[in-house]
Design a protein that fits this description.
The protein is an alpha/beta fold and about 400 residues long. The protein is built from 12 helices and 15 strands. The strands form 2 sheets. An 8-stranded parallel beta barrel has the order 1-2-4-5-6-7-8-15. Strands 9, 10, 11, 12, 13 and 14 form a 6-stranded antiparallel sheet that branches. Helix 5 (about 130-145) packs across helix 6 (about 165-180) and helix 11 (about 355-365) packs parallel to helix 12. The two termini are about 20 Å apart.
Amino acid sequence: MQLLVSLRIGALLLWSMGVLVAGDLKCAERPYRVVCYLASWANYREGSGSFNISYIVPDHCTHLVYTFAGLNIGGGIDSLDYMNDINVNKGYQRFVSLKEENPCLKVMLAIGGWNEGSEKYSLMAEQESTREAFADQTLRYLIHYGFDGLDLDWEYPTMRGGIPEDRDNFVLLVQTLRKRFSPRKKLLTAAISASKQILAAGYDLPKLCDELDFINLMTYDYASNEKTALDAPLFTDYNSPGETIDSTIAYISKSGCPMRKFSLGITTHAKTYTVVPARLMAPGIKATGPGLPGPYTVSPGSLGYNELCEMLKTNRTTSAPGQPAGSVWTVKAMAQNAVKYAYRDDQWVTFDGVETIGAKVQYAMDKKLGGIMFWTLDTDDFQGDCHNEAYPLLQTALRTLGYVKKP
């Protein structure tokens, strides 16, 4: 953890040297947003994968987002883990207190997520009275715990138990929240799918852009489960014949929304498959199931970059924990797609590394997007075990943006 300690000391020195003076705070707006999500449950992980809020370097990101709150039976915002968020671990309090080290930092609370589903949100957004009640209670909740705003992560309007009217009702919900938030200067953002089908069905983008401060695009998880595929390809080619980041941005650009409203999503998670080993292990081979879980995230079909980079670093015939023994990993970099894949025995992985993050951030800058979004901080190599620096993926992005000097 020596690298993390050094980074935090450096950040504290900046404030103590008078770069910002409390009571006379003037925050220069950075040209690009850096929105960083925290999976609050990461502190429950085992061993070196356990993530503590104190590991966050507050000046790395312009916006930090705590995930997730949910909806209670009355349709109001509520903690999904009282012990972690409020009572024992005091996650909310510790997260918000990061502003003491960087007063210009915005700390937000996200509501929703995949596990929350859609049906509860559809029901809440259906009536004016429940929308109003949600907006009022949410504002009080944010003020009570000290958050600067709310990030809506309803996955997804019109789907997963939703109704066709969700598309319009989501706009009405956002408008209701904006009206309630504006006098208190609370931020209102949303995380939305990168799938053109989901975007068309669930989101009235021009109207949402009028109300939201910015929108985080989940430009990853393009890969199917039936056969191996690149998870977050930048461009379309024979390796990525379906949707890509570029096709999503092309679709978004036709909405009429200012492109600066959007943050390009970058994931620190790898998608994994179990396959039948073959001579040709390129994208497109049939998968027999999800890949083996890693020792920290313990999630079949997914690895944190911190788990994967340890496996690749120990690229010997001895196996990493939870992985089969056998031959070494073969790693392929797809320059056109700005993504990588690797395979070993019956395991096949698609991921972003330090070599591909820079290309994606540069793409966001070239397309004049408002910034980038990281999902999530806690699965970057925050210990600095693989690249001689903590948070190598995030640091690569910051160097590309010009926020950190290149070594």
